[in-house]
Amino acid sequence: MQELETQKAEALAAIAAAETVDAVEAIRVAALGKQGWVSALLKTLGGMTPEQRQSEGPKIHAVREAVTAAIADRKAGLEAAALEARLAAERVDLTLPAPEAPKGSVHPVSQVMDELAEIFADMGFAVATGPEIEDDWHNFTALNMPETHPARAMHDTFYFPEMDGEGREMLLRTHTSPVQVRTMLAEGAPLRIIAPGRVYRSDSDATHTPMFHQVEGLVIDKGIHLGHLKWTLETFLKAFFEREDIVLRLRPSYFPFTEPSVEVDVGFTLVDGKRVLGGSGNGQDGGWMELLGSGMVNRRVIEMGGLDPDEWQGFAFGVGVDRLAMLKYGMDDLRAFFDGDARWLQHYGFNALDVPTLSGGVGVRA
Length: 366
Ligand code: PHE
Description:
- By secondary structure, the chain is α+β, with helices and mostly antiparallel strands.
- The protein contains twelve helices and eleven strands.
- It has helices spanning about 1-15, 20-30, 35-45, 50-90, 110-120, 135-140, 150-155, 180-185, 225-240, 300-305, 320-330, 340-350; strands spanning about 125, 135, 160-165, 170, 190-200, 210-220, 250-255, 260-270, 275, 285-295, 315-320.
- Phenylalanine binds near residues 177, 216 and 318.
């Protein structure tokens, strides 16, 4: 009993002394969490005689209630203080005259997608789309990843609890590659498309968000080879970064849906310690940055798209749009892209009239 009182007093003192919501949360977990000491005390009730339980039960429950209440109080207090501080720091003076013309701006991701459409339209590519809620046939199987394929596990897929009418597992697409098969099936060959859009993976840190953007490229025609792929990527990246000295390095890689597969690196040069794309990629003041995945479309994928792989060949590539935006416009935290903070948009956003054109430049800032 004495021990119970001491434990309670210690816990209450620790709660009162906690300086942050996180610290209070740590105390909560240590006390009331599954492995917490209060939870352990509650479990001892099960092994007591009815008489013991009658005398000890109320005491243990009282400790739980006291600790729970103290934690809630302290959290509320700390949160209120944090809000006060924020309100004081971010005050808006409503007596000031209204801003002249409050205006929105175009998100860098939208701007980059417009830039991509403009650059690829000039090379004869149309823009294709596909659903973000996909089935596992289009997202995996048709891309040469049958059910047991290990690459499926690498995608950190968000699945839906229910299947579709045809018994296919439903998911949020993990890449834009399913649009390859959808477009082949819908339009046949020859094809030249890009497919920009949202993709989803269960992953989150400074460079990964659960939703991000990719653009897929697909060319299907007769006699297509790796040289066409390299030229297309080189032409695209030179136009996108508006530099003639963009140098690419193709490294052998593996994707189930391309064979052979190549990872594409771009050479960068160090300028004042910062990586600037362009330059040889070699030597002390430069290096290579991994940029995108690509390859010659696997025969089996062409078949899944309803085409004869002896007649039609092609190449495909996939690249992160957010990543391209970060590299071109110099943001370093991907999470800020999706915070919806008006100040960030004010800084990084584009003027709605600043439509990218090849003649006017695809990289002009608002
Ligand atoms: N879909 C691949 C990914 O998300 C990228 C890719 C696309 C690779 C097309 C090759 C060809 O990682």
